[in-house]
Design brief:
Distance between the termini: 33 Å
Number of domains: 1
Helix content: over 70%
Largest sheet: 2 strands, antiparallel
Number of helices: 7
Shape: globular
Order of helices and strands: HHHHHEHEH
Radius of gyration: 19 Å
Amino acid sequence: MAQRHWWTTHRFGVLTAMQFVYIVSLGFHQALPDGVGRHALGELISLMLFGIASLVAVFAVSDKRAVRFTCAALFSLFTAFYLLEMWLAHPAVAVTQYVVGIGFLAYVIAFATIFFFHTPRVTQNTLFSAVSTYLMMAIAWAMAYTLIAYADPRAFNLPDGDATGFSIFQGRDGFAATPMYYSLVTLTTLGYGDITPATGPARMVSAMQAVVGQLFIAIVVARLVGLHLINQFSDDA
């Protein structure tokens, strides 16, 4: 019973921690020892960390069995296509993999958002549910940018003609670090400018992510302030 109460209280905090570990780890795969299995090892590490974060998300977003079953089914399908794409290295399989992945993340984001807007008080779980949703949005958009790059390798301008990012995703390089980096700097409207969208679809998707990112922060702050005022008024009454 005590373990269940701990999980209920800290589940979105655990999810947020795992998401940070997954995202940060993407930048260190290039430090792996050179060798025939370097890319495969990097991808397996990514899949393992993403899998752990996803499984935590399955149990964090809802207590309903139907929701958890759907989340688990979508993630299992994504994993199956991920492994199949590692074996076949076929663009059609890769595209299907990312479409399913975006669907899985969108489903999880929807229920995490429902939790955030239905919670009656500002708690640790409330705050971390907003943070984890924000990070899941970044991951989902990174997958969308990868799809755009598959459709058109010239969709993004890279610094100094760099050929290790979006343009050779079909060449199994980058370990998803480049689209994740671009997604995060776009979502936060940081915009370093070292990677820029070069085509209409890439520009519009990037612009929409920046808009959604700013709206999300504004709505979250407004919701938290409103809950705090309501709770304070109720406590004083």
